[in-house]
Design goal:
Blueprint (H helix, E strand, L loop, with lengths): L6 E5 L2 H11 L7 E13 L7 E3 L3 H4 L2 H4 L5 E12 L11 E5 L5 E6 L11 H15 L11 H11 L10 E7 L10 E3 L15 E2 L4 E6 L7 E2 L5 E2 L12 E2 L4 E5 L3 E6 L3 E6 L2 E5 L1 E4 L9 E3 L7 E4 L14 E9 L8 E12 L5 E13 L2 E13 L2 E13 L1 E13 L3 E14 L4 E5 L5 H36 L2 H16 L6 H42 L1 H4 L1 E4 L3 E2 L2 E6 L6 E4 L2 E2 L3 E7 L2 E5 L1
Amino acid sequence: MAHFTPFSKNATNIMEVLVDAAKDRKIQPEEVDFELLSVQTLVKTLKHKDWTIIEEPIETLFDEKMLRSVLLEIRQEYTIRVKPYETNQELKDIQIDILANKAKNKVIAVFKEGSVFPDTINLAKELKKEIYRKKLRAGLLIKHFETDLNSTIIKLSKAVKPGIALAKDIRISIAQSPAILLPRNDEIISHYKNKQKISRNLIDTVDAGEMFFEYIKPKEGISGRRCDGKFAAAQKPKIMYKNYRPNEETVFTKESEDSVQYYAKKEGYFKEESGLISISQKIAIQSATFKNVGSIDAGGNKDISVNIAKRDHNDDSVGSGVVIDVKELTIEGTVGASAKVKANVLSVGEQTHRRSELEAVDNAKIKLHRGRLKAKTAEIEILENGTVEADDIHVKKMLGGEIIGQRIVIEELVANTVVIASESIEVGTISGEHNVLMINPNKIETYHNKIELLKAEVKIKNSQQKSLAEEHSKKIAKHKEQIGRIKTFQKRVQASLKAGETPNKADVLRIKQYKLDALKLQQISDDIAQKEQFLETLKLQLEELYEADMHAKVINKGVYDGHTQVVFVDAKTGQNYSMIPQGHYERLFLKKVGDEKIISR
């Protein structure tokens, strides 16, 4: 233990005095201690041009704005008695650590596990004295920013059990000054991406009127004050996205204090070029593979056109497994296996894989088709073992595969094909074997659904009419049973009138009610008749639909070679009428001869 003669010293930084004293005596700073004799706090502001002594805590003299201001300067001046370090016998078994956060605006005292508190009436006073001693060694202010310190220490001194070691650390707050409020950096929020979080979708689509993008403005931080009295300056916010701006033709903005919100004037997909935000309805890409796209799903109701470039012969323009759903799609190259493509208007410049699935709400144009296609109208240069289902279909050359449609035109029919129509099949030339030209309306989805709906409606209406008629017959019969009684009432009324007397009111009411009931029954009869007429109209419509095979035709502008089968299927019974024509049969159709149907020309 070091020994030297104690001395008094004025200081603004106690730790510097202790270090200098230790250096002069060639001892460690830990061997030097001090006793606080007096302390005064001084401030300087615009109002207090010279250092001015204050007696009250700083936080009670200045508002928060001033406490956070660089214009406020604070310092403490101390008179201390420097002396050799001696253990405080009252607190020798208590270990106290003073900890401050990085910003030095929060300070806590930690009473370590295992500490033993003495049984003394002056415990709170001694604890505060020790806390002050440690705060001063740490360069922190005392008597300021300590709003609850006294009550906290008193509460602690009453709560601990003297002579019993602490089972765990106890932490108490001993000072808290205004913290720096961090600045807010500017940022962007891509709201449109929330809809694409689950799927791997290339196109981020937005609806008209949708708020799809937002620029969050930077916000200045607010400076603070440390527990050592020093001003703590807030950093400036980082500004990285200020260059974003809207394309006013497709985007409008709403601005608030905190942000700029971008709204779409029309539906489309998000596009950004050099900070210019716009909504586009046309996109051109080099390829659509599962690796680089995953899917392009704008939905057919979105007015978006996509053009996918032609790749070299080794790569598909639309790769395996890709899903595409847009309004207008132009594929200059090929469509790979397991790709699913949907558009209102679809164009494929090369070929489709046999395991690809394509759908066109309106029109599809394909150079070489091997996959599955469903469309409203379809134009195909070469159909090779693929399938097509549409209302109107035009194929230049068909080599295998199946076509189902209402009206079908095939310029050249080669071999191994099945062509099914509800209204007409027109063939330019036939040059191969194993071809089937079939008129079968029930194979057309729209026709079949219409038949089934009409059949169901006729069945329901029949049942309803039967129930109504039976119930009405019962009511009419019951009404007729009352004729005898009504005639009696009528005679009594007539007799009273003849005698110049007022007829019995009940008799008059019964006669009126009978007439009203008769009128209602007649109205029901008229309603039943109207419904019966509507039912007959439905039955007529159904019969007309059943006769669709009678109005259909197969046209061959060339010559049959005896290897093509022509089939008409009765729409009502499902019976087949077939022939294998040879020679020139430009027009074949189904004709009724008596109760039978035959294929005629």
